[in-house]
Structures are given as structure tokens and as C-alpha cells.
Amino acid sequence: MKKYFNYLFLFLAVFTIEASAQDKTEIVGKVWSIEKTNAWYKQYKWINGADFLPSTAINQLEMWQADSFDPTTIDKELGWAEGIGFNTMRVYLHSLAWKQDQAGFKKRMDQYLTIADKHHIKTIFVFFDDCWNKQAKIGKQPEPKLGIHNSGWVQDPGDPDFKEEANFPALEKYVKDVLTRFKADKRILLWDLYNEPGNSGKLTASLPLLKNVFTWARAVNPEQPISAGLWAWNFKELNAFQALNSDVITYHDYEEPQWHQRVIDMLRSHGRPMICTEYMARTRGSRFENVMPMLKKENIGAINWGLVDGKSNTKYAWDTPLKNGEEPKEWFHDVFHKDGTPYKTDEVELIKKLNDKK
């Protein structure tokens, strides 16, 4: 019954978005035309891959800070991704890592892109994020908490920082600096401006920052498309803004395929290419074997959460901590063990088959 009401909200939200499309006051800058976006999408073979954090990093800061940036592990793990045909990784940035060392941060981004490109992998970079721990601190990051999903993941710009407009000029400088540096970089597929705005109980308090980041991005006018993924179908105001201002429709769905298919059918009304930038939570019924073939059939990009079991602990479910750190009966996310062996051989064989990878 809960799912029914969630999808009723989605149905109503789609009509709200379409009705709002006639009122251009919600459009920030010049959104790519449907024709331009579809032509862009046709350049690429089927987009698929994972949300990527190297197994040696607990969060975005540990990935990007100079002292803990780990190109050796990144190279190794992206090699495993290439081996099964993955061609896209979605990677989170963090404004504090940029603030600490602006030139070094961009240099490490370039280094990451060079590694990914060597493995024939495009990158979706993510700027802001409303999920998990409220505050981040520069420096050595905490050790993982046993058996707890994403115990060290941090929001960006944090809470209450996200709603304090005095912070916006510095965030604008960050976004524009990064976008200007990489605006024509063909190794980057797409810019994901804000992950799950309104999460962590923020709701529409995130809307001012969301609107601003789109304004800043449109001012730079990168050659790559921009987007912010829909994820909570009862957030009508956020959803309308995200959908109307995104060049490509991106979204998250961790439900079973019959519910996921309903989301696809409703979002089709926008006429734009679609990329599912988060899916695959085995214990919720969203699996490679039942969702990934559906996404390929629908020509929708498929980016699952997690590549390698590591410090993020995302093999544990969101709401089912195992505080003694024992192995879960079934992994929630992730594809590979730390040594590169597949969690499930039949899954990687399916992924390879879908990617025509021998």
C-alpha cells in the first residue's frame, strides 16, 4: 500500500511538472533542447557502471585529499570494472577538499580522469549531497564503524551550512572553478549537480542551494549536460525544478522491477534520455539479474551503487546494521571483493553478457 501511494505521488508529480513547463519562471538558464540532448545520448553505446569510491576510502574527503588519494587502488579497481564492460563511473566530489587545496584538488581530478580514460570509462561527477553525516572535517577521516552502512559518508556542504546563504559565494566559486577547468573535457559524461536534495529531513530547505547550483552551472555553460536526479516522488516542488532544469533525466530507484518500470514509464513523458544513477539493493529485490536487462532494453543508463567492498561498508543494508561486523547473509551493494573476485560470479557474467564482453 505504501508503494501504491508513493507511485501515486509520482504520477501526480509528473503531471505537475508538465503543467509547470508552461511557466518558464522555474527554468534557470538555457536548458538543452530535447533534440540536442537526444543527439548527445546517441553518441554513446549503452551507459552502464557503478557509483565509485575506492575501497581504501571511507568517504569523498578520503578519496580526494592529497594525503589519502590512492591512484594505485583506483587504477586496479577501475581495471576490474573495465573487465566486465562497465563504461561509466559516478564519482562524488567534496567542496572542503577543494577549499583546502584548490590547485591540488583539480590536479587529482585530472589524474583520476586519466586513469578512468585509460580503462575506457567516462565519469559523472557529483557536486553536492544531502545524505548521511551532517558535518565533515578536513584531515584524517574516521575508521569505519563495524557493520554500519556508509558510517563515514559526509554531506556537502553539510548541515546547517547548506541553508546559510552566507556560504553561497564560496560554494559558487568552487562550482564555477571546477566547471570552468573541466567544461570541455570529453572524459566527463555529465555533471550531477546535487545528490538527493531534501534528504536527511531537509525537504525544501535545500531548494535555494539547488536553484543556485543550477544557476552557477548554466553561467559556465559546460559542453557536458547537467542534471540532478529525482529520488523521492512526494517531493513535488523539488522534483519539478530538477526535471525542468536537467538536460538529461537522472533518477534513483532501488525497488523491484515492476515498480521501477512504472517510474520509467512515467518519466518517459519528458522525452529526454534517462540514466538511473542509483539502483541495485539485493535485499530489496533490486538486482542485476532483474533490473539491469530491463534498463538495457529501455535504453536507460544503469549505474548501480558500489563497485568494491571497502571502508564504506555498503555491503550492509541501510537499515540493518550488524554491529559485530559479521558478514551479512546477502550483500546489499557492491560487485567485487577487495581481491577482485566477484561477490557473485553469475552477476558479473550477466554484466559481461549485457556488455558483449567476452
TrEMBL record:
Coiled coil: none annotated. Keywords: Signal. The keyword Signal applies. Residues 1-21 form the signal peptide. Gene3D superfamilies: Glycosidases. Residues 171-285 form the Glycoside hydrolase family 2 catalytic domain. This is Cellulase family glycosylhydrolase.
